[in-house]
From TrEMBL:
Bilayer topology: Multi-pass membrane protein
UniProt main location, coarse: membrane
Keywords, alphabetical: Membrane, Transmembrane, Transmembrane helix
Name used for this protein in its record: GTR9 protein
Biological processes, Gene Ontology terms: D-glucose import; dehydroascorbic acid transport
Domain Major facilitator superfamily (MFS) profile: 1-191
Transmembrane residue ranges: 6-24, 113-136, 143-165, 171-190
Highest classification ranks of the organism: Eukaryota, Metazoa, Chordata, Craniata, Vertebrata
GO MF annotation: an example: D-glucose transmembrane transporter activity
Cellular component GO terms, alphabetical: plasma membrane
Pfam entry (one): Sugar_tr
Gene designation: Slc2a9_2
Localisation per UniProt entry: Membrane
């Protein structure tokens, strides 16, 4: 029943994908990253209801003034910064634990190939971390979430199909492994 279990996560992703466009962007993102003051106030009212949010807006403006001279680091600069090592270590440990979730077992491969699949899972996680951290400031979370969920839904449909056909065609098992890698990358970039 692995296919049912994998389909459940696809269903949850689809539900989130359907409702995500109805939510506004984060007010701090709109103000600090995009410089959209009117959009920030509109998002505050959508998220918190009608009211006066001038205090919160002023706090964000102060934060914007403080961070105005701060340089946004790219991935390599961040990896050279010792102050972020605890956060990076925590993030890597959480992502590496994804190997224990059982996705590799769904492909129905020989035991001798499973270590290589685990290595591929780790590589996929690393690719998604680097890629996501490079583009999140450019595109924002909403686009990455929507795109990630769409990709995950498509990949899960293809994975289900490849698992169903893996008994008839031996090469479909390897397609399943590639789809698992792509699912992990899509998950890492989006959700």
């Amino acid at each position: 029943t692995w296919n049912v279990l994998l389909s459940f996560s696809g269903l949850v992703a689809l539900i989130q994908l359907l409702f995500l466009p109805f939510f506004p962007e984060s007010p701090p993102y709109l103000l600090l990253q995009k410089g959209d003051k009117a959009g920030c106030l509109k998002a505050m009212k959508q998220l918190w209801g009608e009211g006066n949010y001038q205090t919160e807006f002023d706090d964000l403006m102060k934060e914007k003034a403080i961070t105005k001279g701060t340089k946004i680091m790219n991935v390599l600069e961040m990896l050279r910064e010792p102050s972020v090592y605890p956060q990076l270590l925590t993030m890597l440990l959480v992502l590496l634990s994804l190997q224990l979730c059982g996705l590799s077992a769904t492909a129905n491969l020989q035991e001798s190939i499973i270590p290589y699949v685990s290595l591929g899972v780790s590589t996929s996680e690393l690719i998604s971390i680097i890629f996501c951290s490079s583009i999140i400031d450019r595109f924002g979370r909403r686009i990455l979430l929507c795109g990630g969920y769409l990709l995950m839904a498509l990949i899960l449909v293809l994975l289900e199909t490849s698992l169903l056909l893996s008994d008839q065609f031996l090469w479909m098992r390897y397609c399943s492994v590639i789809l698992i890698f792509l699912f992990i990358i899509a998950y890492g970039i989006g959700p």
